[in-house]
């Protein structure tokens, strides 16, 4: 936790490499101090087929999924900082957007939580 998924039009990868885009999001998430660096996960999904508005040529959207417990202000800051960093990298983009959503702790599960030795139900158990 957290997970950042970058959806973008395929042509964005001609402007910046996948590593540049993913590193920008990772670095911003790390710099906020909201997450342990080893917990941050970023992935990128380019789209070959998409439909945009008239005279719009490309897009990038970051979906951020984080464990509940951060304030609205913290989430807004994270979203804004990611937008700012990516805007500097992609100065001529038609659509650039970010949204941050909460995972509900009560309904979240992972490999650590289902481990029978994890009696404290620590979601970082064994990492």
Automatic annotation (TrEMBL):
Pfam families: CHMI (PF02962). This is 5-carboxymethyl-2-hydroxymuconate Delta-isomerase. Coiled coil: none annotated. PANTHER family: 4-HYDROXYPHENYLACETATE CATABOLISM PROTEIN (PTHR37950:SF1). InterPro entries: 5-COMe_2-OHmuconate_Isoase (IPR004220), Tautomerase/MIF_sf (IPR014347). It comes from Chryseobacterium viscerum.
